[in-house]
Design a protein that fits this description.
This is TGFBI isoform 11. GO terms for molecular function: cell adhesion molecule binding. Helix content is 27%, strand content 25%. It is an alpha+beta fold. It folds into two domains: 116 residues, Roll (FAS1 domain), CATH 2.30.180.10; 97 residues, FAS1 domain (Roll). A hairpin with a 5-residue loop joins β3 and β4. It is elongated and about 60 Å long.
Length: 219
């Protein structure tokens, strides 16, 4: 409730719409590392994205849910809601602890895990969960982890783990500068890249974007 009030979403949830609220229990918040939770609670944009990821665009009682159902959140993400016996599941996990709490403008289901969207994660958190974890460890060892876990708006060009199949380079001045040239001084989704665009890295290198048939390349 405190998180909803801090985000300003209470006005919407008190309005006339019909929503489904996947309400995290206090225990769900306690499962998140305090550093991560404090960062999200202190970042209005990340907090709003987090809470929007727990609100469905229509009221949905348990009896209306069938296996394999895909639903969209206000954040724009898609959740796979289904059934396992008499248990409701989200993305294949039985995390709904209490269901069908009816309100005048929707329904609430309590869940015991937070559904953190990518948009509420830092570069470090997002990349550490993927197949670029080796590169992320290199950034951390090179002393660049603060750029990936802070509030800077950056773009990370993260090498895949397969790039390091023969091992990782030693951490020296050359490696640090090489890694800094994989961090762009702006937050850019691929849809915002255009042909001929120049990007500057933290290492001072200028990269030029080439777009061929909607495929972006850099040099």
């Amino acid at each position: 409730r405190a998180a909803v009030a801090a985000s300003g979403l209470n006005t919407m949830l008190e309005g006339n719409g019909q929503y489904t609220l996947l309400a995290p229990t206090n225990e769900a918040f306690e499962k998140i590392p305090s550093e991560t939770l404090n960062r999200i609670l202190g970042d209005p944009e990340a907090l709003r994205d987090l809470l929007n990821n727990h609100i469905l665009k229509s009221a949905m009682c348990a009896e209306a849910i069938v296996a394999g159902l895909s639903v969209e959140t206000l954040e724009g993400t898609t959740l796979e809601v289904g059934c396992s016996g008499d248990m409701l599941t989200i993305n294949g996990k039985a995390i709904i602890s209490n269901k069908d709490i009816l309100a005048t403008n929707g329904v609430i289901h309590y869940i015991d895990e937070l559904l953190i969207p990518d948009s509420a994660k830092t570069l470090f958190e997002l990349a550490a969960e993927s197949d670029v974890s080796t590169a992320i460890d290199l950034f951390r060892r090179a002393g660049l982890g603060n750029h990936l876990s802070g509030s800077e708006r950056l773009t990370l060009l993260a090498p895949l783990n397969s790039v390091f199949r023969d091992g990782t380079p030693p951490i020296d001045a050359h490696t640090r500068n090489l890694l800094r040239n994989h961090i762009i001084k702006d937050q850019l989704a691929s849809k915002y890249l255009y042909h001929g665009q120049t990007l500057e890295t933290l290492g001072g290198k200028k990269l030029r974007v080439f777009v061929y048939r909607n495929v972006s390349c850099g040099s």
